[in-house]
Amino acid sequence: MSTDTGNLSTGSVTTGDEGTATLTFSSGSNPINRTATITATSGSISSLVQVEVVDSTVTLSADGSSLTTAGTDSITLTITAKNAGGYGVNGASVILTQSSTDGGSVTFAASTGTTSTVNSTAGVFKTTVTGATAGTVTIISRALGTSASTNVTVATAAETFAVDKQWLDTVDIGNPNPSAMEVGQDLEIQVNVPTSVSNVTFSTTYGSWAGGSGTWIQVPAAGVSPNRKASAILNTDAATTANVMVYDTANTSTNDTLQVYMTSDASPNSIILQASPTVVSINTGTSTITATVRDSGGFVVANQPISFSIVNPTGGGETISPAVVQTAANGQASTTFTAGSLTSYDAGGVKIHAEVIGTASPMVGTGVSPSGNDAAVVIGGQPGSIAFGQATVLSTDDSLSQYIQAMSVLVTDINGNPVSGATVSLSAWPIAWSTGVLAACAYDPDNGTDQGTFLNEDVNENLILDNYGNPYLSGDPPPFDEDGLRLYYDGGTPATTAGNPDTYITPTNSAGGSVPATVTTGSNGVASFNLTYPKQSAIWTVTRIRASTIVQGSETVGQTIFRLPCTDNDCGSTCRLGYSPYTF
Predict the structure, then answer these.
(1) Sign of the CA dihedral with 79 first, then 80, 83, and 85 last
(2) 563 Cβ partners below 8 Å, 6+ apart?
(3) pTM to 2 decimals?
């Protein structure tokens, strides 16, 4: 069995008594719509069947429907590719073509490309198109084995329906989009009207038209092409953002749009400062700092110079650029914060202050009533803590004499964000050992039955046998014989003297198992490793796994202490590991 695309559940099958066999075909991870050819071969005989792989989609949207042959205006095309599950597909190849029956044509800024994540949406490709020759043009986008299209009308400038001129209090301001006006000002908007249009309707989401009916007014076109025009005057009594639409009264699909920022003419009264994102990485991380200036009535104020500054620098070279920005028509001014080589030393992060330059007392700035607080940006990457993960299933090595315990460490910063690329040092040490026999196992006179858990006889972990008082207990009179006076792990009364003293450390450091010297965390802050230990150490040895990492001179340490586990097969009724290897 074979297929030229997709996956088969098996490469060969055997027919049953009825001469049939069944297998499964899946399309796999390839999201492209296509035809799969599945071939079955038996000896010199073969047969094939074709399966259509479908349901991936592509959409094409445009932010306008008309262009001029002058090529000075443009339309943005947005192509979105999705798989059969409705999820955006990044990396999909996009091809744009055009067709026309009346000689119209457009020019693509880019006729090919690949989809990516744009403004948090996956599977998107954007480009612009300008007019070339007059006519109706069909734009086709192809991706994932399917296509979508939209129509665009290209006309000479004289025959294009569009806003082409604006005046602010009779002063010619060109034709900006978005445009801006202050409360109390007049904004005259002029539309170029083709000969096929008789009347133009002006509408707005806020404000009013002089001589009109509130938010709309109908105006007859006047003049002869190419000077055929219609105009109306917009007023506002409050600061906001208005969306203006002008259209052919007889055919609303012939239209143009204009955004107008309506701002306050009053003095600034407050600043609200925001940072996005609020957590960045060291050295290259950036955050956009945006200040919004309002007057005492809560309306935005344009054309105000805003000074940005860092309140509590880390000393790592973080910057703000530009330092002074003037508020736009929407009352906002934005700058960029770039992290330095050091992390912020507390969870509050690096604070950014903003104020209006030249304002009289009281100063209009963040942290001063009625303004908002300073913005804060946390420079991450400084390890805050290390946590351990431990698998619930044991495995063994090839010799079947060693247990393998899968483990991991998770390194996070002070905000709980993962720290990637951190080198973590690991160590294992047997801190205690136990004597005795498991309850399920029968009494054996050749094995000790005294129960107890005792401290490692090398409590300072220098691989030298201890022969002095217990450093964990105050007032313990040294010296003592390590085999004549064993110290309980819980710090209680020493066990009764038993057995013959020896000169060996119990347990040896290898009884606690082995771990790799270092591991490195991935993008999720996790580094995996194995703890390998002798089966005889299981149950009877208490081990400590310690992890540490150093970033920019600061060390973070974590540890976990547990009794080495064993499998039911070894420590159950079989009693294979029923007796402690440690005796008095």
Answers:
(1) negative
(2) 539, 541, 542, 543
(3) 0.48
